[in-house]
Design brief:
Distance between the termini: 45 Å
Shape: globular
Strand content: 5-15%
Low-confidence stretches: none
CATH superfamily: NAD(P)-binding Rossmann-like Domain
Number of domains: 1
Bound molecules: NADPH dihydro-nicotinamide-adenine-dinucleotide phosphate
Number of helices: 8
Radius of gyration: 18 Å
Length: about 260
Amino acid sequence: MSKRKIKNSRAIVTGSSSGIGRAVALELARCGASVVIVARREDRLRQLADEITAVGGRVEIVAGDITNAEVRDRAIDIATSRFGGLDILINNAGIGASGLFEHADPDRLRRIFEVNFFALVEMTRAALPALKQGVDPIVVNVSSILGHRGVPHNSEYSASKFAVQGFSESIRAEFARDGIDVLVVSPGTTETEFFDSVIECTGKPSWPEHAAVSSDEVARRTVRAIRLGRHEIIPYRWGRLLCRLNRISPGLVDRLMARYV
Ligand code: NDP
């Protein structure tokens, strides 16, 4: 049974110039939400805004870097001033890098944490007063399967997503008394620009490739989970399998992972 209505809700989607964020913003708009879209590439946001307007949705653009407090505050101000409030915060913006830990410098770790973790946490902090006034409010944090199981060549990214997982579980308990839900979406390999925009690639794991899912599919499942008030989804079959295997036999998964370095 549906817990939450998307129609007439007010949402912010970070990292909505491409991939999963773009698809989620469009899906929310199709379902009747008003959406503030946030990312650095303004031309891409304008294209998306045209598509949202074409399906009859209301949209506002905030072009800027999510690690900047002014950009985060602007997104929240626009949601409250133009749409009258905020009900759905989607913390989706994310970056990655690939390569062994011993070949990476400390800057790579810090850059990844700035976007994937600190910006997500500070966006949540800044949005909390507005969310408390919202209708059936929810925070959606886009994590990864690598937030459930670390894999070689992705130590910094994986650590940032484990941090998102821990943060989300903690605030879920804290926010419950204010009626704010917290959903963690943990995608697996998804067809987006993510792998082309990694900030550094000094090596890759050699495991067999599994078919990627589309960002539209992840968006549909995410919006469905928002409606249903779910706490966790893993919209990727191989990801669910890996998490299950890791719970049953973490030592076996450790040995398997070591083979792919
Ligand atoms: P994309 O690269 O297509 O999208 C990433 C989005 O984040 C873009 O809109 C980008 O916009 C935005 N972004 C990145 N850095 C910043 C920044 N500093 N400030 C504002 N926006 C920023 O990748 P995905 O759609 O795949 O990634 C979305 C989320 O899904 C990420 O959190 C990622 O970790 C997660 N994920 C993706 C997987 C996949 O296989 N694709 C698997 C598991 C998780 P712009 O460059 O215009 O700023």
